[in-house]
Write a structure and sequence with these properties.
Blueprint lengths: L1 E3 L3 H10 L2 E4 L7 H9 L4 E3 L7 H9 L9
Parallel strand pairs: 1-2, 2-3
Length: 71
């Protein structure tokens, strides 16, 4: 499952729930956070650097909103 994420809370939730993140470059992460995400098999997609896939376009078109919960 891929989630549209814009902040650090989203990152933490994604790591907890083992899901993927899609960002638009607004998510500024410390290197340690990126390494932690990789170690926990959470993929971070950046639309400014990655080609848009159909899934990414679908998520953006639906303007997916997710209420985050603590793990």
């Amino acid at each position: 499952m891929n989630l549209y994420a814009l902040d650090a809370v989203s990152l933490a939730t994604a790591i907890c729930k083992k899901v993927h993140l899609i960002t638009e470059g607004q998510l500024l992460l410390k290197r340690s956070a990126i390494e932690y995400a990789k170690k926990n098999k959470v993929k971070i997609y950046n639309l400014e650097k990655s080609p848009k896939s159909k899934l990414v376009e679908m998520v953006l078109n639906l303007k997916l909103r997710i209420k985050w919960r603590k793990c």
